[in-house]
Specification:
The structure holds two protein chains of two kinds.
Chain A (H helix, E strand, L loop, with lengths): L1 H30 L9 H34 L1 H12 L1 H10 L1 H18 L4 H28 L1
Helix pairs in contact in A: 1-2, 2-3, 4-6, 5-6
Chain B lengths: L1 H12 L6 E2 L1 H7 L4 H8 L3 H8 L7 H11 L3 H4 E2 L7
Antiparallel strand pairs in B: 1-2
Helix pairs in contact in B: 3-4
Classes of the chains: A mainly alpha, B mainly alpha.
Chain lengths: 150, 86
Amino acid sequence: MEKYKQQVKKRMVLLYLYNALSLIIIILTSIYSNVVPEGNQNISEMIRGFQFGTYLCLQLFLLKYIIKFQQALKTESALKDLYIEENDERTKFIKNKIGGFGFNFTLAVIATATVTAGFFNQLIFCTLLGVLIFMALTKGVLKLYYRKKY
Amino acid sequence: MQSLLFFLCKVSYERGDILKTKIASLRKKHKLTQEELALAVGVTRQTITSLECEKYTASLVLAYKIAQYFGLSIEEVFDFSEVEEL
């Protein structure tokens, strides 16, 4: 368990780094937030909303994991609970069935591409947003299906 | 079309070799809750539920851990009689 504790501590450091990096990106992009591609005014507003929502979600996501790891490091039983939660073989099995790391990585890349496209072209933004929504829905449905099946 | 869809869903939902287990009866005999057994063998309560409902087949390591916990052999906890032979 000591080895796992060290691993969690390392992850905490990485999360702090990610958080700092994402904050810098958010600040930089908010400076250039007036740079919105020409076209439909409603879509431009939607792009701004989407970008703000993504930044907020990213921050909340990182914050959630920081709090989770901090609490786990407080007591031995909480650390064991986290270890079981992360290493449960049924959860891993379901994750593998869905596509695991590959699916999550693709989702993250498409989300980043969607946010970036929002600065340049409305059509590309809308297309990528459609793909992102479809992939997220597929993942959700598969997760529900396999959780019920196994 | 609807019947084809139903058939496809049914086929995809059918499972292969799912082992029958005596985990539920052994757990009751030892007066253990699912949570307690799960904590002892290092899995979540949902995994124990799935094993007891015969929805999920345990890995060799988990089967060994459960059998060890009850002081039995794997064959005494899991029923291999219905596993198809090639």
